[in-house]
């Protein structure tokens, strides 16, 4: 496929498949890793795809796009910083500033924090630490929402020791 199609075309086809089919995530994540390893141009194209997925997720509060974006970003991060952003950098870039996807409304902020909270029982410590050390941007008037998440995440980390 890599010989016939450009990286942009492959990621466009990947997005179409993700939107219209049930997928084998093992194959999808292996495919993403292969793209990053074998094509230098894959990183910016994958970042564009992640941006589109997050934009769509927050426009329609679509949990599927949110899950997909996080899975793909985490897979990219597993390939190392030479091939893709670290998870910490991706999370900070996506949610760390006042222009983040979630910063447009309280509803968007609640959507993000509920998503992260729902993941807490299943999250490896690495991701919980990133979310605590580099929390999403939250306006001062909604700081209590973030503190609820941070408390939950810290409790989970304490349970995991």
From TrEMBL:
Coiled coil: none annotated. It comes from the Eukaryota. InterPro entries: FANCA, Fanconi_A_N. It holds the Pfam family Fanconi_A_N. Residues 3-161 form the Fanconi anaemia group A protein N-terminal domain. This is Fanconi anaemia group A protein N-terminal domain-containing protein. It comes from Ataeniobius toweri.
């Amino acid at each position: 496929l890599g010989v016939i199609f450009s990286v942009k075309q492959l990621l466009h086809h990947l997005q179409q498949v993700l939107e219209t089919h049930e997928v084998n995530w093992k194959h999808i994540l292996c495919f993403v890793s292969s793209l990053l390893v074998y094509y230098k141009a894959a990183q910016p194209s994958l970042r564009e795809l992640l941006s589109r997925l997050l934009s769509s997720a927050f426009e329609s509060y679509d949990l599927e796009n949110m899950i997909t974006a996080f899975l793909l970003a985490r897979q990219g991060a597993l390939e190392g910083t030479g091939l893709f952003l670290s998870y910490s950098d991706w999370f900070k870039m996506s949610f760390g500033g006042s222009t983040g996807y979630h910063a447009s409304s309280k509803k968007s902020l609640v959507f993000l924090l509920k998503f992260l909270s729902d993941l807490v029982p299943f999250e490896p410590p690495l991701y919980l630490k990133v979310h605590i050390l580099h929390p999403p941007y939250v306006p001062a008037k909604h700081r209590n929402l973030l503190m609820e998440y941070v408390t939950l995440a810290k409790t989970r980390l304490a349970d995991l020791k």
